[in-house]
């Protein structure tokens, strides 16, 4: 016991205290930002390879804390741990419905994609809340896409999947984000309640390095398509990547080549009309 006590003491380095304080401050700052309505949304276009036009915008949360933008990967993790993700998710959906409603209303084929954390799906009223927010914002559920990562499908709690099934029954589509980075990937794809797969940008970047993993990329696309799923590729930065992905059957493309994520007032100005043509 004495040894263990000594180890605990020794392992608590000053750096850990600094990290703990930083995280506590970030959590408090994030809570405040949520209360004050300071979580912003940027939009990145998704281009149809068939129509060569923007058919979707993905909503990406933005938070500025003490003058600098905190990367979403970082604050979403904090939000998940602290439970704030529920309010942030609702706010991103509410705001993006409000901001994109006029654009969506122009064409029923247009969609809004919103990222959803597995933690949000643990709430049994998640599906109901999503549909409520869409209805309040006058957005048709058929124009909504929820992006989830594979890990949500590993959750043994049946109500998690039931949420997604309920939403799909109401017309909402589910996209499998970061496809190819998980464990089950190809084999289990058939069983998952998804409509769209998003090929992760780490695979798209292989197109630069000319790697031997390319057959994995092409078989992911072919497998998804043979199951009747739509395929979007993300992280496209070069015309070469766009051409390759179009040639191999991707339905839609997203990446800095077309536009970076932009606030609503710069959303359509940011789109470069170079790429796929
Ligand atoms: P994600 O959903 O996989 O989003 C794609 C990320 O790739 C975004 O980073 C986007 O800005 C970036 N990206 C897009 N095109 C390119 C490109 O051509 N090259 C490169 N290098 N990157 C590109 P971002 O906005 O920093 O978001 C990071 C992650 O944070 C997202 O990954 C998503 O997992 C999470 N996230 C963002 N907003 C939300 C949200 O509202 N809710 C939840 N639950 N997660 C969110
Ligand atoms: Ca996403
Ligand atoms: Ca992704
Ligand atoms: Ca991601």
UniProtKB/TrEMBL annotation:
It comes from the Bacteria. Residues 23-275 form the EAL domain. This is Amt family ammonium transporter. The lineage of its organism: Bacteria, Bacillati, Actinomycetota, Actinomycetes, Micrococcales.
């Amino acid at each position: 016991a004495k040894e263990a006590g000594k180890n605990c003491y020794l392992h608590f380095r000053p750096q850990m205290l600094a990290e703990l304080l930083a995280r506590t401050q970030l959590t408090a700052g994030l809570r405040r930002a949520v209360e004050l309505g300071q979580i912003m949304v940027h939009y990145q276009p998704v281009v149809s390879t068939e129509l060569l036009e923007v058919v979707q915008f993905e909503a990406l949360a933005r938070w500025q804390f003490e003058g600098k933008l905190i990367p979403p990967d970082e604050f979403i993790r904090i939000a998940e741990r602290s439970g704030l993700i529920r309010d942030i998710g609702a706010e991103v959906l509410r705001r993006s419905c409000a901001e994109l409603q006029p654009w969506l209303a122009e064409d029923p084929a247009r969609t809004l994609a919103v990222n959803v954390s597995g933690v949000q799906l643990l709430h049994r009223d998640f599906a109901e809340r999503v549909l409520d927010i869409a209805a309040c914002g006058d957005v048709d559920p058929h124009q909504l896409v929820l992006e989830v990562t594979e890990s949500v499908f590993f959750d043994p709690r049946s109500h998690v999947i039931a949420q997604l099934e309920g939403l799909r029954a109401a017309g909402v589509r589910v996209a499998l984000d970061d496809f190819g980075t998980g464990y089950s990937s190809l084999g289990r794809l058939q069983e998952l309640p998804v409509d769209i797969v998003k090929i992760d940008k780490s695979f798209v970047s292989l197109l630069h390095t000319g790697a031997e993993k390319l057959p994995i990329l092409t078989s992911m696309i072919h497998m998804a398509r043979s199951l009747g799923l739509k395929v979007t590729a993300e992280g496209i930065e070069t015309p070469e990547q766009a051409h390759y992905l179009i040639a191999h059957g991707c339905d839609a493309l997203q990446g800095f080549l077309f536009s970076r994520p932009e606030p609503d007032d710069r959303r359509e100005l940011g789109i470069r009309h170079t790429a796929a043509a």
